[in-house]
Design a protein that fits this description.
By secondary structure, the chain is mainly alpha-helical. It has 1 helix and no strands.
Length: 97
């Protein structure tokens, strides 16, 4: 068997993808990955906006409930004071009779 040492010519590798094709495929993959990342980022931004709106709504509701609680406590205190005053008057009337 005779082996000849001949220089390798480009024509023998014509069937292999060129560097441009590999570069194009790499750029295509990167472009696809960027589009996927962009989609995920858009979804994350949308979720953030929803959470921000919900948080704002909950803060408003909480403020309203805090004000309502304060009013109820004030009414309870006023009612307690009136009831205690009535009891005191009834005891005074009972002792006076």
């Amino acid at each position: 068997m005779l082996i000849l040492n001949r220089p390798v010519k480009a024509q023998y590798f014509a069937h292999l993808p060129s560097n441009n094709l590999v570069t194009d495929m790499t750029q295509s993959n990167q472009s696809l990955e960027l589009k996927e990342l962009e989609g995920k980022l858009d979804k994350l931004i949308e979720q953030y906006a929803n959470v921000k709106n919900e948080n704002s709504s909950l803060k408003t509701k909480q403020d309203s409930l805090v004000r309502e609680k304060a009013k109820l406590l004030e009414k309870t205190t006023l009612a307690r004071t009136r009831v205690e005053a009535m009891i005191t008057r009834l005891k005074a009337m009972e002792n006076g009779s």
